[in-house]
């Protein structure tokens, strides 16, 4: 097919990279240039396009500018809308909506030794590929509460049984002492969680009061969901395997891309103190989370009766820990009481590193007051490696 690319920025490079070899780029165009050649191809003014024989114009511009370019081509330059393709929409929509699908689809059957679960502290703070007790994958995700961690494990159990059959270790980042009181679906983070890669389950979102028009309205506004004919077109035009592979490579480097530190920002983000002070105890949430936490443990043992289950609390920056110590004191006692019950009942391992000052006191290890940067994550992963080796005599 004959292709014209609309846009001269970096996205046109992606279009060229992913376009299937059987298609031919015959030219370029945009709304602000008046050149004759680009990448050794003809450059067409928009008013010339209706006289050119082509199959598709691929819009290589993001967001509203891409939509605006499409409208102008149709309304001002008499281009048939079905011959216009917005690349960013197809490329985003063809990638698996759930991060765990993106990750697990690249795992070979039976090769996986361990899984990581938890919240963004683990996503940024533990380098799964650097854990030395086998091949680990990191299925933690930002704002992923106990319920969604259980649903992630359950999803893998039903959809990737052959890939997790030999898993021997599960590491679960328990976030903070308030974790049993946290329900993502009732929080302001639920829309980001569901649109950026979380398990597709709205849970208690119907009760969420943070969105005047409701969570479902926000999801429909922000999700990129392709129709079947759009998926077919994407497969026909582009190397979808390469697009998904690039997205996967980006995900596995997720925690390694942050090199800035609190030293660079020259300040400690203290607004988390207000967040904790406003946290009200939800008895029903705690009860529900206890139920799903126990389901998580039992499913882990169903996968492997000899499963090593390690519960972690990761170190936040020491100024944050000190500022929140008094606020979290009551939460800490309740949290530890709950965990002690499960540790004894199920023979779990629980390591609280919140006071591990070799890491928490170093501002060069943090991208913000709660998340380790690349250097901090390497330091923490190395420490965790040795702790696991010593404990299990590996």
Walk me through what this model shows.
With 394 residues, the chain is of the alpha/beta class. Helices cover 46% and strands 11% of the residues. The protein is elongated and about 75 Å long. The mean pLDDT is 91.
Secondary-structure blueprint:
Elements: E1 2-6, H1 10-18, E2 24-29, E3 37-38, E4 41-43, E5 56-59, H2 63-75, E6 84-86, H3 87-94, H4 99-104, E7 114-117, H5 120-125, E8 136-138, H6 146-159, H7 161-164, E9 169-173, H8 190-195, H9 215-222, H10 228-237, H11 240-252, H12 262-265, H13 271-277, H14 283-303, E10 308-313, H15 318-346, E11 349-352, H16 357-360, H17 374-392
Parallel strand pairs: 1-2, 1-5, 2-4, 5-6, 7-8, 7-9, 9-10, 10-11
Antiparallel strand pairs: 3-4
Helix pairs in contact: 6-14, 13-15
Strand order of the largest sheet: 3-4-2-1-5-6
* Computed CA radius of gyration, to the nearest angstrom: 24 Å
**What portion of residues is helical?**
40-55%
The oligomeric state of the chains shown is single chain
Q: What's the overall average pLDDT, rounded?
A: 91
Task: Give the overall shape, derived from the CA principal axes.
Answer: elongated
Question: Quick gist of this model?
Answer:
The chain is an alpha/beta fold and 394 residues long. Helices cover 46% and strands 11% of the residues.
